[in-house]
Hints:
Layout (H helix, E strand, L loop, with lengths): L3 H18 L33 E3 L5 H7 L1 H11 L16 H10 L16 H11 L4 E2 L11 H21 L4 E4 L3 H4 L1 E3 L6 E3 H7 L6 E6 H6 L4 H8 L3 E6 L1 E3 L7 E3 L8 H8 L5 E4 L9 H12 L3
Parallel strand pairs: 1-10, 2-3, 3-6, 6-7, 7-10
Antiparallel strand pairs: 4-5, 8-9
Amino acid sequence: MTSPKTTRRLLAAGASAALLAGGLFAGAPAAAAPNSDRANFAADCAGRGIPASKISIQLFSYFGWQRQVGIEPILAELQEIGYQNVEPFGASAEGRTAPEFRQLLKQYGLKAPTSHGSTAEATFPTTLEAAKDLGQKYTGSGGFASPGIGTYENVLATAETMNRLGELSVKNGTGKLFGHNHQSEFTTQYADPETGEMKSAWQILVENTDPRYVTFQLDVFWAADAGVDVVSLIEQYGDRIELLHIKDGDLNGDARGIPGNVGQGDIDWAPILRAAQGSVKYYVVERDGAPNDRDFAAESFEFLTCFTF
């Protein structure tokens, strides 16, 4: 019997082969192509997987490539693949102002509904100004606000900070504040002082933040790498998880997992994507240290748009 992991790899390979036959992978990275035909596989898969309008990509994945070629060739490749959204981080704009970067994204048919920015409270008004100029629908970072999760009291204080920042963001018109997990938010646990129940820092943050102002960007791979049953987590807290980081790879038990292309790793996506329906607004693909070519972005996009679940 073919394993689910092998099946997913065969599906991704088949999609890539179809694209290769159509010439999408031919040639070097595209130059600026605002008038591209947007030749992509998504049209053939409409109604099967995740709509392209809900798929985004964390640009940190390609930071190594960006340092070689600059951001514009990468944006051109993403447009050609069929992406409609990106999730920038600090270096993505390469010194451009938020309005300038928004205009650059528009040139390639892209929007930035989310980004990984600063949650420093003292400078958050400036962060919010830039978020509004960029057209964001959420604000947040690649981690959590201060003071962190080093003690139970710090976790509660972090929740209070998130509530304050989230309220400011909502009033600014840039949506809820989100926090993004790695493994430690789940492996760090504290006893509830009232019940004695052991709870993860992530669970404590969920329970002590205001759903009007705060949501969570669940990184599926790092949660699974921490031993979390991701499907059960989404089923229990789905109304608090409006963003998913779609990350795949090889889970290594007690060792740190090794990220790879979406659909080619150990993550069983069908039940996760089913559980996410109705609550998750954006599915943001990411691969830490992705190779300096389009394969990760293309294969991950094809998997999400074509995978029936």
